[in-house]
UniProtKB/TrEMBL annotation:
<feature type="modified residue" description="Phosphohistidine">
    <location>
        <position position="193"/>
    </location>
</feature>
<feature type="domain" description="Response regulatory">
    <location>
        <begin position="5"/>
        <end position="119"/>
    </location>
</feature>
<dbReference type="Pfam" id="PF00072">
    <property type="entry name" value="Response_reg"/>
</dbReference>
<dbReference type="InterPro" id="IPR011006">
    <property type="entry name" value="CheY-like_superfamily"/>
</dbReference>
<keyword id="KW-0597">Phosphoprotein</keyword>
<dbReference type="Pfam" id="PF01627">
    <property type="entry name" value="Hpt"/>
</dbReference>
<feature type="modified residue" description="4-aspartylphosphate">
    <location>
        <position position="53"/>
    </location>
</feature>
<dbReference type="InterPro" id="IPR036641">
    <property type="entry name" value="HPT_dom_sf"/>
</dbReference>
<dbReference type="InterPro" id="IPR001789">
    <property type="entry name" value="Sig_transdc_resp-reg_receiver"/>
</dbReference>
<dbReference type="InterPro" id="IPR008207">
    <property type="entry name" value="Sig_transdc_His_kin_Hpt_dom"/>
</dbReference>
<dbReference type="InterPro" id="IPR050956">
    <property type="entry name" value="2C_system_His_kinase"/>
</dbReference>
<feature type="domain" description="HPt">
    <location>
        <begin position="154"/>
        <end position="247"/>
    </location>
</feature>
<protein>
    <submittedName>
        <fullName>Response regulator</fullName>
    </submittedName>
</protein>
Length: 251
């Protein structure tokens, strides 16, 4: 637990100090005073859990949580902490994307037990992600995935799926290359995320791995390093195009 990091987001100084004292018993933490500050720090630092107050100036906790989820700024659990006490409110917050919900005033023992549970959940999620990522063979095209797709479709149909993917990827790459300003990082991340997801689904593993690395760098504001990798991504898509034209597995 000591290696874990928690981000505390609360505009009330007294509440924030209370949370800091409690969290310090388990692990390290950082604190900010509103949703905007939370988004800023999450762009450069990784956390295992976010404790999010709901009513805050500049940006409230619900809006901040939705921004984090929508833009995939962080995948760690987010717990809402609010003065709302109604169970209906609790289910509403959970339905909207929070992982847990506690009401103020908090009970220290319940608070610590909930934080422990969510940190363990974060651990499990990280392990699953690592297993998924380490299981990706470094090949141009994963024949195992192609055969799964062909189980209920003709080879020609699936080949056309890959050709459509290449056509869409060409458009995405054109848009990615045209992004010249660091101020458009969010737009770049969106395009790379689409390319990563589509290539991963179709087993275009080399494209997937480079798109994944590019997205990671962009999310961490490493503009120059991202730009250096973009030509590699374009090159891998060209290789995949040649490979699909010659591949006999669809016959």
């Amino acid at each position: 637990m000591k290696s874990k990091r928690v981000l505390i987001v609360d505009d009330n100084d007294l509440n924030r100090k209370l949370f800091e004292n409690l969290v310090a018993q388990l692990c390290t933490f950082k604190s900010v005073k509103n949703g905007l500050e939370a988004l800023d720090i999450l762009k450069t630092e990784q956390f295992d859990l976010i404790l999010m107050d709901i009513q805050m100036p500049q940006m409230d906790g619900l809006t901040a949580m939705k921004q984090i989820r929508m833009n995939k700024i962080s995948t760690c659990p987010i717990m809402a902490i609010t003065a709302y006490a109604d169970m209906e409110d609790k289910y509403s917050f959970l339905d909207q994307g929070f992982d847990e919900f506690l009401t103020k005033p908090i009970r220290p023992r319940e608070f610590l037990e909930t934080v422990k549970k969510l940190l363990q959940k974060s651990d499990k999620k990280n392990e699953e992600t690592q297993k998924e990522e380490t299981g990706v063979p470094e090949v141009v095209l994963d024949h195992g995935i192609v055969k799964q797709l062909m189980k209920y479709n003709s080879g020609e149909t699936i080949r056309n799926v890959y050709l459509d993917f290449l056509k869409e990827s060409e458009k995405l790459m054109s848009e990615i290359i045209s992004i010249k300003s660091e101020g458009n990082l969010n737009c770049l991340i969106e395009k790379l995320h689409i390319l990563k997801g589509n290539s991963g689904t179709l087993g275009a593993n080399q494209v997937f791995l480079i798109a994944k690395e590019c997205e990671f760098l962009a999310r961490n504001n490493k503009w120059d390093e991202t730009q250096l990798l973009i030509p590699n991504l374009k090159n891998e898509l060209s290789k995949l195009d040649d490979y699909i034209q010659e591949e006999t597995i669809f016959e």
